[in-house]
């Protein structure tokens, strides 16, 4: 009996240590950044809560950033697609935890949230100088954007000049500009990438580009921390070989808020939150994530290069390289059917203009 009581007391002591340690850490965080000791609880009804209440729950800097997105009145159609829940798309070192609580990202693990990876996010964000929309874009109140997919449909369409005429040009992964200017244009405002898809050859460097990093796993954040700290990168833990050197300045890099990807997966593509063990979990393609990003920062969204030719398995998958459609159709990590269905809805409802 005595022994049992002793075990109980020991267990209680350990629990107290763990909880107290955690609380202390949290409080320290709030204290250091917000000058208050009680963390504001995330509202479980964040989706339905009114705008005023929502704004009150966000730290002041995040409210300012969100207001900056609202300088241009949205079309009613956009509003209905986005709901009241307009997300500032990039994480900032000083308030990402608070923003995550507000968005509900603290309840999801990567790739769609920050749960259990907070320290990795903190480390990676500590290497970045700023989290603003790029300075050039801040001055434009109503942004006309084009999202350039990497689809083979762009070949020989000479859309380059048209694409370059937009305020904001969003590209993705390693879709090259050099050598394809006539078909895809020269300018790149944002480029969405992850460690396995970011350019590492300096030939692709563009000083006017902001790289938006999509984080899928803690390793990606460690990679960013290491590579910006000039450390040697081990290729362990990646889907395929990641970039081993960084061609962009740290001031050009942002980390995408996982809420954007989560919204794409669950609200727009209606992916289940759990997949059977035998099945690979499906994630949105970078293209769909880029479109969601565009809806959050643009007044008008046009698309190019998003059409796939499913009838010819030998047709080119991309406007560059030799990959064919059959490779895309075998991809187990995406649900192309769901994405094409959603794109068709966007186009049919005139939410976007499709150039190709
Ligand atoms: C594009 O044009 C080039 C040169 O005119 C030609 O060699 C190539 O086959 C064309 N590609 C497609 C997909 O039409
Ligand atoms: C970057 O932007 C500046 C100013 O708009 C422009 O003069 C320059 O040519 C651009 N550089 C590249 C590589 O596009
Ligand atoms: C596709 O390519 C394969 C091998 O290159 C060939 O055998 C097949 O006939 C082609 N199919 C079509 C529809 O062109
Ligand atoms: C595409 O195929 C051609 C000929 O088969 C080859 O020379 C070229 O290196 C390939 N390009 C890429 C990007 O794989
Ligand atoms: C892909 O999404 C569609 C709904 O758009 C669904 O019917 C289908 O089962 C999904 N496929 C997989 C493999 O998850």
Automatic annotation (TrEMBL):
<dbReference type="GO" id="GO:0009247">
    <property type="term" value="P:glycolipid biosynthetic process"/>
</dbReference>
<dbReference type="GO" id="GO:0008118">
    <property type="term" value="F:N-acetyllactosaminide alpha-2,3-sialyltransferase activity"/>
</dbReference>
<keyword id="KW-0812">Transmembrane</keyword>
<comment type="function">
    <text>Transfers the sialyl residue from CMP-N-acetyl-beta-neuraminate to the terminal galactose residue on sugar chains of glycoproteins and glycolipids. It's alpha-2,3-sialyltransferase activity is specific toward type II glycan chains (Galbeta1-4GlcNAc) on glycoproteins and glycolipids such as neolactosides nLc4Cer and nLc6Cer, whose sialyl-products serve as precursors for the Lewis X antigen. Critically involved in the synthesis of functional selectin ligands needed for neutrophil recruitment during inflammation and lymphocyte homing to the lymph nodes.</text>
</comment>
<keyword id="KW-0472">Membrane</keyword>
<dbReference type="Pfam" id="PF00777">
    <property type="entry name" value="Glyco_transf_29"/>
</dbReference>
<keyword id="KW-0328">Glycosyltransferase</keyword>
<dbReference type="GO" id="GO:0071354">
    <property type="term" value="P:cellular response to interleukin-6"/>
</dbReference>
<dbReference type="InterPro" id="IPR038578">
    <property type="entry name" value="GT29-like_sf"/>
</dbReference>
<keyword id="KW-0808">Transferase</keyword>
<dbReference type="InterPro" id="IPR051142">
    <property type="entry name" value="Glycosyltransferase_29"/>
</dbReference>
<keyword id="KW-0325">Glycoprotein</keyword>
<keyword id="KW-1133">Transmembrane helix</keyword>
<dbReference type="InterPro" id="IPR001675">
    <property type="entry name" value="Glyco_trans_29"/>
</dbReference>
<comment type="similarity">
    <text>Belongs to the glycosyltransferase 29 family.</text>
</comment>
<keyword id="KW-0333">Golgi apparatus</keyword>
<dbReference type="InterPro" id="IPR012163">
    <property type="entry name" value="Sialyl_trans"/>
</dbReference>
<keyword id="KW-0735">Signal-anchor</keyword>
<dbReference type="GO" id="GO:0000139">
    <property type="term" value="C:Golgi membrane"/>
</dbReference>
<feature type="disulfide bond">
    <location>
        <begin position="145"/>
        <end position="298"/>
    </location>
</feature>
<protein>
    <recommendedName>
        <fullName>Type 2 lactosamine alpha-2,3-sialyltransferase</fullName>
        <ecNumber>2.4.3.6</ecNumber>
    </recommendedName>
</protein>
